[in-house]
Amino acid sequence: MPETSQLLQGPRFLDRRSPPNIVTLILLASVSGLALNIFLPSLPNMTAHFDTEYGLMQMAVAFYLGMNAVLQLIIGPISDRYGRRPILLGGLVIFLLATLGCIWATNVWMFLLFRMLQAVIVVTMALSRAAIRDMVPEREAASMIGYVTMGMAVAPMGVPAIGGSLDAIFGWQASFWALFLLGAVVLALTWADFGETAPRKPGGFAAQLRDSPELFRSPRFWGYAGTLGFASGAFFAYLGGGPYVGDQVFGMDPATFGIYFGAPAVGYFIGNFISGRYSVRFGVNRMVLIGSVVCAAGITVNLMLFAVDLGTPLSFFGLMSLMGLGNGLVIPNATAGALSVRPHLAGTASGLSGALMIGLGAGLSALAGFILTLGLGTLPLLALMVVSAYAAIFTILYVIRRERILGVS
User: What is the pLDDT of residues 103-115, one digit of tens each?
Assistant: First the structure.
């Protein structure tokens, strides 16, 4: 942890000796989300460009998420031992090089390789959250994470539409050039503003790993991590299956699909605002439970409409905003809960919970792409999302029950 006097002074913008400004934290969190979804409207055109099948091209999402999960297992403990700043800077440099590789790829396998390397940008999401927990207590962390991810949601809200428009005008590579430019700006800002929040500790990486079982033995941590994984898993399934639904089921062009596809981000923005405003007052568990119920309810109604043949493109994408709203309540609060179980292992907790969230998301994204080829319209995707959303309700109820009856551990 940084010295108390340093934190009490508060962040000083563009001062590498103080904790990062909230603007820097928002941009760090944003670039990871943008790298995930800006190119999604281009998947059909990329499939044609590389002369491959949609199912293989869609692996650009699943492989990316899988590598995200693996990297977070490593990034968290390393940042707890060596600090947040050097890991962030190194990750951003690798991301820029990998983005150039995606642009200049000559075949689908080369593209997928560099796409997996792009996943190193997950450092910005994982360590911006860990830095917040370094700086403030649990409920304040939930509130601050809510505001950071609310700002993070503003950019992705219109990004699929921008990505679709860039594709239509300049081709699919334009989205990756946009990512390169943004990554360069964020690298410069991080260098200038991100003061270390978790200074290097004595010992080596092996010593950090020896401390990790203390976190692994906490059922409450796994409850929060499971809720994060299942609630966001519904969204990742949407990421994997949404482009297919827009193109093959509804027959949308990339630009139109990009506009509709951003509906969950609107709900996510609102949910993050509510989290930032009310998490301190109501507590993380109550906010997570409400968010899980809202997420499940929106997807359930969506499934019922299509089951009775009353669903439309507007209802399909519009109701996804409730899923986004629920995730906007769940993610900042469950993240703060997971990071607060063992505060001195905040980086490890951020990495491990993020790995579970992204790893489960990668599996659901890949599964969504597979089951949608069965010719049943939107129903397989919505059924998969419903199962994931209700699993999130179960896991947070487990956490609440354990705290009330068995005590906190």
Answer: 999 999 999 999 9
Phi first, then psi: give them for residue 127, nearest 5 degrees.
-85, -20
Helix (H) or strand (E) holding 312: none
DSSP class per residue in 46-89: HHHHTT--HHHHTHHHHHHHHHHHHHHHHHHHHHHHH-HHHHHH
pLDDT tens, residue by residue, 201-254 = 655 555 555 556 777 788 888 999 999 889 988 988 887 788 888 888 888 887
**Contact call for residues 144 and 272 (beta carbons, < 8 A):** no
Element (H, E) at 291: helix 284-307
Dihedral (CA of 36, 39, 45, 51) sign: negative
Residues 6+ apart with CB under 8 A from 216: none
Whole-angstrom CA distances from 14 to 2, 29, 136 are 18, 18, 20
d(CA 346, CA 201): 14
User: pLDDT band for position 4 (50/70/90)?
Assistant: very low
How many CB atoms are located within 10 Å of the residue 405 CB?
A: 7
Q: Distance between the two ends of the chain, CA-based, in angstroms? A: 22
Task: Say which range, 89-93, 140-144, 193-197, 205-209, has the weakest mean pLDDT.
Answer: 205-209
- Output the pTM of the full model: 0.72
Q: Which of 357, 366, 2 is nearest to 195 (CA)?
A: 2
**Residue partners of 185: CB distance under 8 A and separation at least 6:** 27
Reported as type and span, the H/E element at residue 244 is helix 219-244
Burial of 106 (0-12, 13-18, 19+ CB in 10 A): exposed
pLDDT at 394 over 70: yes
Q: Which domains does the chain have, with CATH numbers?
A: 18-406 (1.20.1250.20)
CA atoms of 312 and 306, how far apart (whole Å): 8
